[in-house]
């Protein structure tokens, strides 16, 4: 106990549940919070703005998720939502959309103890359910299609060579070019292991893998090798977290490649569209896997819900568009930063030139006895 504010990223500010509860009961604290940590067994599902605090009536989309997860659930501190805690691993990719958020690292839940009747009083293993919900809400159609490949195909992603055309860039050359690119600062931060700006380590993993998918031209083995050398590398990368036996790392790479539309070609120093360059790679089997969410689950939608309310069965199309817009926004921000830097340099050069002109004018004034028509007119 430090007596100050706790940080979800600083273990020195955490303590045991017993000590935290005692402090909350006897001290000035308002409540107890649980921190989700990298490598921990739990995932938190935050459902917001879905409960009437007066009547307890729950929105349909939230009730469907609560029923599907079937694990310990309690009312959130605001009374307008729910917290569900499960055992599982958050799949790579996004973790926030609308009023739904998924946490597995560097976040905390304020625990209320206001258990929801009809839900288990224990935390259940719900890895498959979590994967299905994540696929419905956060994955692009291409990534979902990729996730339905057979277990042997998924394994081949990292063991049998490229899933894209590949290129002849060495690891060192690739890192150098990526670092010097327009978005090189972002790449460098991720390469160092800096997850600032991302809601979770998993989201940062996906961001770096997506960049590497472009620079490696979809070479899964090279992506895997580079991730292991990066600051984001962690034991979770090799952990088997999915029903088909694939690891977290394999799935992250596969989804990153599936979501990459262009590849870098080192021979010409340019990028090439994936549709033209990766026909052979796209020829891999796309048979349905029984262990993944069914196609009917993924294809269904809730037309009665307003667009701002997430749908657990039809959200991936919206999510794909959001991811596309996010990518465009990041590109625009990068261009804006470059323009700002150029303008700043031009401004500095102009100010230096103006200062030089004033200096020359002063010198000329002194030579002419201190008077100049130009200076008088000013």
Task: Explain what this protein looks like in three dimensions.
This protein has 378 residues and is of the alpha+beta class. Among the domains are: 11-128, no CATH class; 165-283, no CATH class. It is 46% helix and 10% strand. It contains 15 helices and nine strands. The chain has helices at residues 17-26, 60-69, 127-138, 141-147, 151-159, 171-179, 184-192, 201-215, 220-229, 248-258, 274-277, 279-282, 295-299, 315-367, 373-377; strands at residues 32-36, 42-47, 73-75, 82-87, 96-97, 100-103, 107-111, 262-265, 270-273. Strand 8 and strand 9 form a beta hairpin. Helix 4 (141-147) packs across helix 10 (248-258), helix 5 packs across helix 10 (248-258) and helix 8 crosses helix 10. The chain starts with 16 loop residues before the first helix and ends with a helix. Residues 140-162, 275-319 and 372-378 have low confidence and may be disordered.
